[in-house]
Amino acid sequence: MNRTQLEHAIRASTTILAQDRVIVVGSQSILGTWEADELPDEATASVEVDVCPRHDDDTESLADVLDGAIGELSDFHQTHGFSIQGVGRTTSSWPPGGSTACFR
User: Which of 5, 45, 83, 84 counts the most CB atoms within 10 A of its CB?
Assistant: First the structure.
């Protein structure tokens, strides 16, 4: 995955969720700070990005919506060569008083 693909994933996710921001977690979140050519190949080898809706319910139904619409084996995945894994708020933990980076 590269930054252009990450940006595409964010745009697709925010459109599907009808939200202006999402939280990118996991290994591909590094592309929010670094360009792919500045990283070792292993850092950008993934073909999926973990996206957490900022506003989801306790059953993580919006994360499920992402999985169904643009997740692994979806038409989006087949067309673009990467997929979005919808994840819930409990997937990652933040340090006390920490914040998350949100992308538009």
Answer: 84
Closest-CA residue to 24 (of 59, 58, 66, 57): 66
Spatial separation of the C-alpha atoms in residues 55 and 33, rounded to whole Å: 24
The average pLDDT across 35-57 equals 92
Cβ-Cβ contacts under 8 Å for 10 (sequence gap 6 or more)? 22, 24, 51, 103, 104
pTM for the full predicted model = 0.86
Tell me, rounded to whole angstroms, the distance of Cα 76 from its chain centroid: 14
Question: What φ, ψ does residue 91 adopt, rounded to 5°?
Answer: -65, -40
**Listed residue (19, 6, 26, 25) closest to 82, CA to CA:** 6
Distance CA 56, CA 82 (A): 23
The CA dihedral of 42, 43, 48, 51, to the nearest 10 degrees, is: 160
